[in-house]
Specification:
Helix content is 35%, strand content 23%. It is an alpha/beta fold. The radius of gyration is 19 Å and the shape is globular. 39% of the residues are buried.
């Protein structure tokens, strides 16, 4: 479905702050895959998602989506293909707008916007049905300003907005990292439920090694802009956190990394 071919990206070229974020990354994503992505700080995880979404243009390599070369397409033209949820709950929603207005924006992603009524009765019914899937009672609060919701509620709403139009792929950039552990597990469960129901191909960056093992059918580990380890099928199902630590040490020649990941 998505072929990532020899993608490289370097920031601040020619300065003392030059940093190679991606170094010849190759990855083939099958339709229906749920791939978890782990790695230490600066491994290139978020840069990879930004390259896919079109936030950054790759220096080298190409991206082929369903046979279409999207390497040079700008972000706004890729919006119809990709849904995305960010780490910060404030980024995926508009705080000053109502819940139903946020959903209306998501429903019109990639479409021409005219001067018709913003929300039709038929659309309102659709939004109510979709909000019920979250199990958070938001279907009875559709005129509530999103800024009044909790972080977990906003992130759940952002997740629903990202898949409302059934994109070709869902990109999750540590979307539970800013939530408390209990809320994070609720949102993570919703993620699995919604992606399975809609059969949406998913790439999920996570700092939680247990979640990386538990969720999805494939796992990739990144270090210094490269994919250094991949696991799927029976190999992934049998993995333990200790196995990931050993794999990192063997492949990268050092310890895997951050307190946040170890505590998670």
């Amino acid at each position: 479905m998505l072929s990532i071919n020899n993608i490289s990206k370097t920031f601040n070229i020619g300065t003392i702050n030059e940093k190679q974020a991606l170094d010849g990354v190759n990855l083939f994503v099958n339709e229906g895959d749920f791939i978890t992505v782990i790695g230490g700080n600066g491994a290139g995880k978020s840069t990879l998602l930004n390259i896919i979404a079109g936030v950054y243009m790759a220096d080298d390599g190409e991206l082929i989506l369903d046979g279409d070369n999207i390497t040079k397409k700008p972000e706004y033209k890729r919006a119809q293909y990709f849904g995305r949820v960010f780490q910060d709950p404030l980024m995926g929603t508009a705080a000053s707008m109502e819940i139903q207005e946020n959903l209306a924006l998501a429903y019109r992603r990639g479409q021409f916007r005219g001067l018709n009524w913003a929300i039709t009765p038929k659309e309102k019914q659709l939004y109510e049905e979709q909000l019920k899937r979250l199990g958070l009672g938001l279907e009875s609060r559709m005129t509530t300003k999103v800024g009044l919701l909790s972080g977990g509620q906003r992130q759940a709403l952002a997740l629903l907005m990202a898949i409302l139009k059934k994109p070709k792929m869902l990109l999750l950039d540590e979307h539970t990292a800013a939530l408390d552990p209990n809320t994070a597990q609720i949102v993570q469960h919703l993620t699995l439920e919604l992606t399975q129901e809609s059969k949406i191909t998913t790439l999920m960056i996570t700092h939680n090694m247990k979640d990386a093992i538990k969720y999805g059918n494939r796992l990739i580990m990144m270090h210094e802009g490269k994919i250094i380890y991949e696991a799927e099928g029976a190999e992934k199902q049998s993995l333990k956190v200790e196995d990931l630590l050993k794999k990192f040490e063997q492949s990268a020649g050092g310890y895997f990394a951050t307190d946040r990941m170890l505590l998670a």
